[in-house]
Structures are given as structure tokens and as C-alpha cells.
Amino acid sequence: MKKVDINISSAGFPSQFVSDSEKATVEFGLQIGQAIQYEWFRKDGNSCRYYSQWRDFHRLRLYARGEQPIGKYKNEIAVDGDLSYLNLDWTPVPILPKFVDIVVNGMQDRMFEPKAYAQDAISQSKRSEYQQMIEGQMLAKPMLNIIQEKTGVNPFTVNPDELPESDEEMKLYMQLNYKPAIEIAEEEAINTIFESNHYNDIRKQIDYDQTVIGISVAKHEFQEGDGVKISYVDPANVVYSYTEDPHFKDCFYWGEIKTVPITELVKIDTSLTNDDLEEISQYSQSWYDYYNVAQFYQNDIFYKDTATLMYFNYKTTKKVVYKRKIKDNGNVSMIRKDDTFNPPSDMMEENSFEKVEKTIDVWYNGVMVMGTNIILKWELMENMVRPQSATQHALPNYIAVAPRMYKGAIESLVRRMIPFADLIQITHLKLQQVISRVVPDGVYIDADGLNEVDLGTGNAYNPEDALRLYFQTGSVIGRSYTQDGDFNQARVPIQELQSSSGAAKTQMLITNYNHYLNQIRTVTGLNEARDGSSPDPNSLVGLQKLAAMNSNVATRHILNGSLYVYRSLAEAITYRVADILEYADFKDEFINQIGKYNVSILEDINDLYIYDFGVFIELSPDEEQKAQLEANIQMALSKGDINLEDAIDIREVKNIKVANQLLKLKRKSKQEREEKMAMQQQAMQAQQQLKSQELASQTAMQKLQAETQAKMQYRQADIAFEIEKMKNEAALKSQLMDKEFQLNMQLAQINNQGLSQREGQREDAKAKRISQANTEQSKLIEQRKNNLPPVNFESNEDSLDGFDLAEFNPR
Predict the structure, then answer these.
(1) Can you tell me the distance from the alpha carbon of 745 to that of 747, in angstroms, rounded to the nearest whole number?
(2) How many Cα neighbours within 13 Å face the side chain of 280?
């Protein structure tokens, strides 16, 4: 088959100031494709920009796999290019793969998820209404509590215990508790698309590229019948406009070089004929001879059946022109015009209309066969990613990041390690040389000394017998004097020879090996604590964790690059979801796929396209951050600053910054709550003391009243008792007086009777005495008269028993 010559001629980009119709022509797209081809594929000597970058990335990837070329090591060790005397293992030491795996696998532990924030007018209005409702509940909380106590009806729309107390608490409350269904639906849509495209696998490749070559690229696009697709892009196959921005935001074109079967070309351009395909095949074979990135598949069949294409996007501007006419009834009509519409001003004034225009960014898609003037596709990109808040801007399909780029030069972690990896490999080869040249320890035999020894067996003592005896028993037979009696200079016929020629060199090479390994750790920040290869036994656990955390800080730019790609893809998905819900044929299927875990948000998903979202990435804390947060929580718990329920709520927050804010807020709230409770307790204590004092005074008054009343009752009882006593005494006295009177009367009667009786007795005695005296007188008279002897008037009857007449004597 006849081959054609590949001649990449000088070509520049076309003017941006042509009309939109001219921009849409195939010639315009072909000129752009040729300009990109000239910038990246023109040969300068034996190389070009594209292949230099491709070879550089390929070299870095081989080092990262431990499969770097060994030619440079052979040149270092060979003497005048001669390796015939060396028998070495040239396999590279896989040092760099270990460090690459440590970084890449360590990034996979850092989980993150998108958080959608609805920032359109409708959502902001709802957010403001909800915040005003919460603020109203905050202000009316005391009154609502009274209403609830009085009526028993709950007037709160939210839990009163969860109501914020200050503006700071309100901000955190809205951040943690307010999540409208539309934001949940958007987050579900983003996560669903990520899961359907297996983004976790793509992320591993992105992190690997960031670590190895220093740049990672991903692509998002909308395919009819297939939805939003996210794919990994090999940075070695990507072309882009010159930029110094590590996020490539100012690139005006992107391209991707792909080698595809020729049969795929018909799917791109259905108008291709067999002659066209034959021509493309000829150019493709010549292109592989020009320079072939698919050199691992070099064969005639591959050359014949494949073609190298460049899929490229180009950014330009487009004018959106409308004819605005005010009708007689006051209505306004807007008629779409092309960018050539430019009527004179007097015509517009006469016909009462005006020209309204706006310039927006647009992207064109193109597919060109490399090395030819054949362009298979050139069209205005459909479903461009255009933020609703800035409709004049459009985002490219490619998302790239190179955190350590300067003046277009890309630096990576592996690139830093390559010089020391080469030194380690050379040291390893030198160590093999030293080890191969090391001589084992031997013995020295003095034959003259053996001749003077007689074993007594009659056999000669030869060196073979001496060695056998030495190696089997470790004993040596010798003589101090010869058979002639002279001193034997060779009295010890066998002596051990110790060879130490390679020991010092081996130790020196091992020291160099460890030094270069430490140099890799130094330039990358991947210390021993990161991988736990050789932890210091005397180092405390906290210091080891601090060292590991410092190592994570050294590779934080790789994580930030991965986060940027993820956030940019999430933002692009939010805009493309609106396209799916508004234009795609599988809208219902997509809605069901999103809402399969939450049926309640299905209705909200239908209106998702009318909202505008901002996307934020919530990064899960690493182990050090979790440990630090847990230490803060445990300290707060030990001091009683927070409750167990607060600790559980804080641990559930994935955002470490928000978690710390929540911890401070919980701690502050508990302090204020405790102070309030303390004040309430003091007030209650004071009130209780006042009540106690009042109760004590009341008790004292009651006691005094009781005592007074008791005294009065006692006094009354005493008076009543006295009165009763007096009454009783009076009655008794009266009775006594009556009794006394009666007794006195009786006594008086008795006395009177006694007196009467005594007087009667006296009278009787007197009468008797008078009678006796008269008798005696008469006797005396008779005596005298008769002169009789003296008469004795005493008689026994003068003294009666128990009765003495002396009692009747006058007192």
C-alpha cells in the first residue's frame, strides 16, 4: 500500500471576530485542529511537545511501578561498556512503588461526600421564612411555655429544648438542622450518578496520577440514551492550551488523542466512503512511522486497521440577538435573529423595535484524523455546562488539576524521588559486586611444621590428615622443638586466615542505602511513622501520631487536587441533572433511580431543574482529627462540660470544623444552662429560705398564739378552777358552816342540855345539900337539943364509882 508523507505545516488559530455562521463551518474547525496539531506535534529535531510529555509521563510511571530502564545503571557500572565480568541481578529495587502505594492507598481512607446548597431566590426565600419562624419561636418561647402550661396544648412547631438561644446558635442550628427536601434530592442525584459511573475506581486512578506524574484529568459529558457519563482521562494523551493555572481554568481548548479501529470512524461520520477510509488508513500508517505512542502494539494488522484521532473542544463566543418590538396593545415580542442582524437606527426608531444582544461563551466539538486534512466532526456542543447564576459562561468537559505546576512545568512526588531511587539502585548493584567478591575464611598450613610431627603410627602426617583433624576436631598437633632439639619456628603448623576485606565496604554500602532511603523520606515528607516500617520503640504513641500527621500534611496537596476534581464534577453534575430532567427521554427512569432510597423526595426531584445549587465537599476527618476531637470530647465529658447525648451528636457530625463548633456551642450552652440552673437554685434557695423564715415566723406566731391561747385557756381554766374551787369552798364552807352550825346547835343543845342537866344536878345537889344540911342541921339541933354525941356525917355514898362530887364544885 502506498504511503503518504506526513508534513505538519505551520498553522495558527483563526480569528475570533468572524461571524457565528463562519465559526460553524468545517473549514473553521479544521483550521483549529491543525493549529492544535502544529502546537503539540511539530517536530523540533527528533521530538515534539506531545511526545516529550508522553515519554516523561511514561518514564515516571515506570519508576512508580519499579520497572524503570536499567540501561543507565549498566552505563554507570560498566568499564568501557564491558559487562562480561559482571554477573549481577539488574532487576530494579521496588522502592518507589512502596511510597506511591502509601500515598495513594492512604488517600482512599479519606471519604468525602457532596453537600448541595440551594442558592436560588425560591430556596433563599424558604430558608429565610424558616429562620424567621425559628427566631419567632425563640422570642416567644416564654409565652408559649405559659400557654402550654395553662392550656395543655403544644404551640411549638419544633422541640423547645432544641431552640437556639443566640445568633451563633441560630447559625449552627440552620447549618445542622435545616435541610430542605430539594437539597436532599440534589445530593441523591449527585451520589447516584457517581455510583453509576463507579467513581471510586476513577478516583484511585486520579490519585495515582497526582502522585506519579503530578496531573490528573477527568471528563464529564451527556450522552443521549446513556445520561451523564464520568470517565477517567490519561493525562499523557491530553492536549490543552498553555496555562499557568494549576486548575486549568483559562484553557480555551482541550484535546484527547485516541487510537481507534477504522470501523469506528463511520459511526462518527456516516458520510465516509471506502475510498475515504482507505486514504485514512494510508495516512495512519505514515503517522505511526512519524511517531507512534502505541508502539507496544506494532504490527502490520494494527497499522492497517486503526487510526489516530484527536477529539478536541474549542472555546469561542456566540452572540444571542433578539428583535424586541413593542406592539400597539403594549405587549412585547422577542424574535430570535442571527448575529448579522444589524438594521440602521432610523429603521428601528421608525418601526418601534430595538436590537437586543448578549455575548456568551460556547464550546465546539471536533474530531480530526491526525496527520491529515480530514475532519470528521465539527459542531456546536450540545448540553453545555452553564451555571444558572452566570449563563454567559460555559464550562469545558475536561477537568484537570496539577497542584505543583509552575510556568507550565509539572512537578510530582515521584519526580522528587527518582534521583535517590537511582542512587539506591546503583548502591544495590555495588553491594552485589562486593558480596560476589568476598573471599571466605581459610587456613594456612606450614608443611615444614608437619614434617617434624610424628603421630606414632608409623604413617606420615601430611596436610590432608592435618586438615581433616583440624576441621573435624578443631585440634592441631605441633612440636615446639625439632627432632634435632632446635626451637621449631613452625610449631603451630595450621593457622586460620580471616578475610575482612568486604566487611567494611558492605557496611558502607548499607549505610549509603539507608541514607538515600532517608533522603526520599526527607524530600517527600513520608516518614517512618506514615508506613510504620521502623517505628522508634522509645517514641511515645502521641509523638508517632504527630509524625504521621505531619507526613499527611506533606501530601495534602494531592488530597486537595482530588477534592477539586470531585467538587468540579459534582458541580457539573448539578447542571447536567437539570438537562436530564428537562430534556432527556429517560427522565422518569432517572427519577426512580434517584428516589429508590427515598420515595418521599420523588415529587421534589421533578422540579429539581428550576433550582440553582452550590456544591460543597464535606471531607471525613482522618484518624488524627478523629482522635483529637475524641480527646476534646472526653476532656469535656470528664469535666462535666457536656452530656453523653451531646457527645453522641458531636460524633455524628463528619465535618471536623462544624463538630468543633458544635462542641464549643454545647459546652457553652451547658455552662449557661448550669449557670441558669444555679441562679434558679439560688433563687429557689432564697425563696425557700424566705419561705422558711416566713414559715418560722408564722410558726413562732402560731406558737406564741398557741402559747397565749394555752395560757389564756390555762388562765381561764385556772380562773374557772378557782371559781369552781371557790364555789366548792363556798359550798363546802356553807356545808361546813351548816354542819358547824348544826354541830354548834347540837353542841349548844348538848351544852344547854349539859348546863340544864348540870344546873338540874346542881339544883338537885343543892337541894340535896340543902336537904342534907337541913337534915344535919336538924340533927345538930337535935344533938344540941338532945345533947347527943357528935354525929359522923361521912358516908360511903359520898364517893361514887366513876363520879366525884368535886366535879359539881363551882368553877
Answers:
(1) 5
(2) 26
